[in-house]
Amino acid sequence: MELHAETQRILRSLGVASADRPDGLAVRSPIDGSRIGAVAADDAASISLKIDGAQRAFLHWRATPAPKRGELVRLLGEQVRAHKANLGRLVSIETGKIFQEGLGEVQEVIDICDFAVGLSRQLHGLTIASERPGHRMMESWHPLGPAAVITAFNFPVAVWAWNAALALVCGDVVLWKPSEKTPLTALAMQALLERACIAHQSGAEKINQLVVGSAEQARPLLDHPQVRLVSATGSTRMGRAVAAQLAPRFVRTILELGGNNAAVVAPSADLALAERAIVFAAVGTAGQRCTTLRRLLVARSIYEPLLQRLRALFQRVTVGSPLDEGTLVGPLIDGAAFQSMQQALTRARADAAWICGGERLLQERYPDAYYVRPALVAMQRQSEIVLEETFAPILYAMPYDTLEEAVAMHNAARHGLSSSIFTNDLREAELFLSAAGSDCGIANVNIGTSGAEIGGAFGGEKESGGGRESGSDAWKSYMRRATNTINYSRDLPLAQGIRFELD
Ligand code: NAD
Asked: What is the model's pLDDT at position 18?
């Protein structure tokens, strides 16, 4: 079926009435470059109206008991469960990720909804021993306000859900700016959320609104004084611009930015397991995950044989339409991504022993889409291009002699998102996870760098932004902490024993 017709059919089935306005922002599928819909973009006036609506909704929502807020997220999870196959297919059509990964992304939405429902009964603070007699101290957690959530093209629904499910149970309301490359999945999620709101019967309207458009068109969203939190996922370049724009107002930020993730393969590694993990992490989502494996540090004794195995696997991996069963690598998002991949390979050539793959495929069948053979590059040193994030399937491999050298090469990257070691040596594994090991927000043993579960806090250090979202205690970023001291005595002892007698 033609992609345009299929997209519109899926959207209608999910409750989106119109997603093909002749005057709207055109949306293209990376599968064949064809137009699959068009959406109306926001301007400064409509954004201002939406923020006013969000502020009004917030006053109501923050007074709604948290478990009741959790009930709405439960209803959203049920909607997503019921429409998983259609949503997964839409994600695949709009981003180009293979259908299995589209389904996996939708499953993440379901998982974080389940997590947030439980969380809605666990937003608890501490009680703290006071140094003063007849006093009690405690922490209270309060809703923060309207939260802007900016998302990247490569996880068009999961990243929103990681933020929105938590923000909503925490009592915040959300203004969601999806990537201009993937607004259709956002329309679909919004429609499902609206259905959940109706079933909730609490008048919970405008607790999540879409702000559609380019970065420039969304600028007023970040400048508005009522926006109290900005959770922004995307490139480090975007994070730098957003952080600078928000700094004068000291707005709270959760920045989830780029990655330049590495894996260390030690001599004792289970190589069959490592190979599978490496290939999935390097070429999955066509190398367009923030956690994609981009650097491989291999003990010299096993470097040559491992690289020859990987070379064969990279050559064999099936590249094609993400909707075809059996495809493992779909297209790049657009021509600009293809150009940046080619430029990176040209720069790498000077310091490479050899390069395999990287060429464009299926050009005759899909002249307006960009399919590539994933590239494996044997580097003689960790040159500047290796230290940059190129958002495409390029894996740079380098040998090492000692684990200390491997860790130093690993930590030389400016990003600090995800990392792995493949080893069966307990000492090596523990060193890698220790304070002297990987400096990333995510450090794994015997699994790849990508494919995190929602139960853990997700995020990275250094130029990866420092934000944490999803599981563990990431919810605290969406709330305001108040420390309360209650005096239930008849005296007024001062802290630190200070004497202050008026007579
Ligand atoms: P991008 O930075 O081009 O765009 C991301 C989003 O930010 C889009 O919605 C875009 O419109 C918006 N944006 C860009 N500049 C902005 C500005 N100045 N003000 C406000 N909004 C702005 O990124 P992309 O190409 O969509 O995604 C790929 C990048 O995202 C990669 O670097 C990848 O590593 C990163 N990423 C990170 C994570 C994470 O959790 N750390 C997850 C997914 C993607």
From this structure: 81
- Give the global pTM: 0.97
Is the shortest distance between the CB of 468 and ligand 1 below 6 Å? no
With a 6 Å cutoff on the Cβ, whether 47 touches ligand 1 is no
User: What atom of ligand 1 comes closest to residue 460's alpha carbon?
Assistant: 41
Alpha helices in 25-65 (DSSP H): 44-61
pLDDT computed for residue 203 by the predictor: 83
Catalytic one of 71, 290, 463, 469? 290
Tell me the DSSP string of 383-443: -GGGGS--SSSEEEEEEESSHHHHHHHHHTSSEESEEEEE-S-HHHHHHHHSTTS--SSEE
**Cα(363)–Cα(223) distance, integer angstroms:** 43
Q: Give per-10-residue mean pLDDT for the chain (503 aa).
A: 92 93 94 97 96 97 98 98 98 98 98 98 97 97 98 98 98 98 98 96 91 93 96 98 96 98 98 98 98 98 98 98 97 98 98 98 98 98 98 98 98 98 98 98 98 96 98 98 98 96 88
Ligand 1 atom nearest the C-alpha of 238 is 15
276-280: long-range contacts, CB 8 A cutoff, minimum separation 24: 277/420, 277/422, 277/446, 277/447, 277/448, 278/310, 278/395, 278/448, 279/310, 279/313, 279/314, 279/317, 280/448, 280/450, 280/451
Q: Tell the residue nearest (CA) to atom 42 of ligand 1.
A: 290
Q: Cα separation of 251 and 86, whole Å?
A: 37
User: Does residue 101 carry a catalytic annotation?
Assistant: no
Q: How far is CA 464 from CA 216, 241, 261, 390, in A?
A: 22, 14, 10, 14
Q: State how beta strands 457-458 and 461-462 pair.
A: unpaired
Q: Which atom of ligand 1 is nearest to the CA of 155?
A: 43
Q: How many CB atoms lie within 10 A of CB 66?
A: 19
Which residue, 6, 30, 32, 31, is CA-closest to 19? 6
Supply the DSSP string of 79-140, one letter for each residue.
Answer: HHHHTHHHHHHHHHHHH---HHHHHHHHHHHHHHHHHHHHHTT-----EE--SSTTEEEEEE
Respond yes or no: is residue 256 known to be catalytic.
Answer: yes
Please state, in angstroms and rounded to a whole number, the distance separating the CA atoms of residues 134 and 107: 50
Residue 1's pLDDT is 56
Does the C-beta of 238 come closer than 6 Å to ligand 1?
yes
